Amino acid sequence: MKSWKWGPGPGLTTDWLRLRYASVNCIEVDEELARSLGRRTENANVRVQCADATAMPYRDSTFSGAVAFTMLHHVPSPALQDRLFAEVYRVLRPGGVFAGTDGVQSWLMRMFHICDTMVLVDPARLRIRLELTGFKEVKIEDGAGRFRFFARCPSQDPDKVTGS
C-alpha cells in the first residue's frame, strides 16, 4: 500500500481558490507535492506548508474558513480524521466555516484507489462527528458518487480564543 497522503496535491482547487480569496494557506503532507505546488504558486497569494493536518502549525483561531476537497478518504483512519476535524475547529475563528466534498463507496472509487489509502467517511455519521468536535449548523448533502458538507464554529464559544 502507498503511504497515505492528503492535502492540495497538485493544486487544482488551490488554483480556483486563489482567484477568489485574498490569501490561501495550504497544508500538504507529501514533501514533493508541497515543494512542487509551492514553486508553482510562489508569486501568487498562496502559502504552501509541508505539514500534517492533524497537527497544524497555526495558532488557535487563525482562519475564517477551511476546506477539504476530496481528501478526507486519504486520511488513514477515522481517529485521524477526527483529529483533523478537531484541528480545523481549533484554527478557525468563531463563526468560521469548514466545508468540503468527498467520495462515497462505488466501484469507480475502489478502482481508482487500488494500492492507495481509502478510508471513506460515512456521510450519515459525519454530522455527529463534526458536532462532537464542536461545530454547529452542520449540513450534509448527498449526491451521485459524492457528498458535500458545511459546518460552522459557534460565534459565541467561550472555549475559542481569538487569534491575533
Quick overview of this protein structure:
By secondary structure, this protein is an alpha/beta fold. The chain is 29% helix and 27% strand.
SSE blueprint:
Blueprint: H1 12-18, E1 24-28, H2 31-40, E2 46-50, E3 63-69, H3 78-91, E4 92-103, H4 107-112, H5 123-133, E5 136-143, E6 146-152
Parallel strand pairs: 1-2, 3-4
Antiparallel strand pairs: 4-6, 5-6
What does this molecule look like?
The protein is of the alpha/beta class and 164 residues long. The chain has two domains: 1-51; 58-157, Vaccinia Virus protein VP39 (Rossmann fold), CATH 3.40.50. 29% of the residues lie in helices and 27% in strands. It has five helices and six strands. The protein has helices at residues 12-18, 31-40, 78-91, 107-112, 123-133; strands at 24-28, 46-50, 63-69, 92-103, 136-143, 146-152. The longest helix has 14 residues, at 78-91.
